[in-house]
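Reviewers of the previous submission asked for a worked example of the structure-prediction workflow described in the proposal, so we include one complete record here. The input consisted solely of the amino acid sequence. No template or homolog information was supplied to the procedure at any stage.
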Amino acid sequence: MKQDLDRLMAERNLDGLLVLGNSAGNPVMNYLTGGAHLERALVLKRRDAPLTLIHGGMERDTAAETGLRLVDRDAQYNAMRYLNAHDGDRLAAEVAYLADVIQHEGLRGKLGVYGMVDAGAALMVLNLLQDRLFDAEIVGEYGDSLFSLARETKDEAELALMAEAGRLTGIVVGETQDFVRGHGVRGDRIVKADGAPLTIGDVKAFLRTRLLHHGLEEDGDTIFAQGREAGVPHNRGTESVALQLGQAIIFDIFPRIGSGYYHDMTRTWSFGYATDEVEATYAQVKEIFDRTMAAARVGLPCRDLQQMTLDYFEAQGHPTARTHPGGHDGYVHGLGHGVGLDVHEEPRLSVAAGNATRLTPGHVVSIEPGLYYPARGYGVRVEDTIALREDGSVLNLTQFPYDLVVPMA
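From that input alone, the workflow returned the following C-alpha cells.
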C-alpha cells in the first residue's frame, strides 16, 4: 500500500525516488496520482517526506485533484528556457531540468528511478544525469521492486474501485450473453436477422460498444474463442469464425476502469447444448474452482492453491504443467495472479521456486483453473477475482453465474 512506501524505501536504503513519464501506460505514475491524465509528469519523494508532483501548467486543475504537493513545471522549470540555454539540444535540456529538480528538492543519497520511458532514451538521460550529480546515486530495481511490493496490497479506496470494475464487467458480460441469445438458429449455426452467420467479430464489436457505454476500457483484445481455439489458453478467437451451438467458448474479459484498475473474469459457455465430454470436463474444472475458492484465506501460502489444483487434475487423469512441463494439453498454467493497475501482477498462485508469498489482507488475485484439449476441439476455464480484507474475509469481486449451457432465446 502507499502507506508502506517509507518502510520499503528504508528497507532498500533509498533516500529518495523519481517516477518519470506520461501517465498513459505508466502504472506506477497512475498509482501515485490516482489515474490523473498527465504529460511529462514527474513524481518525486524524499524518504519520510510527502510525494511531490511536477506538472504542466495546462494540467494544473487535473494535478490539483491528486492531493499531492504540486510544482508547476512551466512556471519553475520552463522548457523553452532550458532549450534556449542549450541551443535547442533537447537531451541536454532534459538532463539539466532533472538535475535542477534534484538539487532544488533536496534529493540526496540513493535515488530509485521508476516509471515508463523509452528504454534507449532513459539510458542516455540517466547516464548523463548521473555525471552531473555529486551527492546522489541513481539506482534501479529489477523483479520485486519497491512499487511492485507496495502495489501488491490494496487499500480500501483501491478495493472500492476494483469492486466497481468487477460490477461493471459483470453487466457487460450479461449484455453480451443476451446479445448472442437474442439471435436465431439455423441448424447448429447462430444467425443474424438476414440469415448471415453471427461471428466472433460481431460479438466483439457489440462488446466494445458496451464497454465504452459503461466507462470501461479494453486494454488488449478480449478472448472470445470457440472450439479448437478455446483449447489454446490465450487464443483471442478469429473474428471471422461463425458461432455454433454445442461448441465450448472461452470468454475471458479483462477491462479496466477509468482510474486504471482492472477486473479479470472468465466464463465458458456452450450455446444451446454441450457435448458430454465438455460437460464432464467443465464439472471437474468447476469442482476445483469451488475448492480453491473456499480454501483461499489470509495466511495461506499462495503455492498451496496451485498444489491443490495440480493434485486434483492429476488424480482425474489429466496432464499438468508438473507432469508434462511445456505440454499443451490438460492443465498448462498457474492457478492465478494478482490484479490491479496491471492485469497480471503480484502475487502469483504458483509453485515456482522461491514463491514463499502468503495471502495477505489487501491482496487481489484471480482464481482460474482450466483444462485445454485443442486436438479434441475444446477448452474450459472458469475465473473470478477475489479480494482479501483486513478483517480476514474474502470478497468475490466477480458477480456472474457459472452456467456452462446457455439456452438460446
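Residues 156-181 form the longest helix (26 residues). We consider this example representative of the routine output the project will generate in years two and three.
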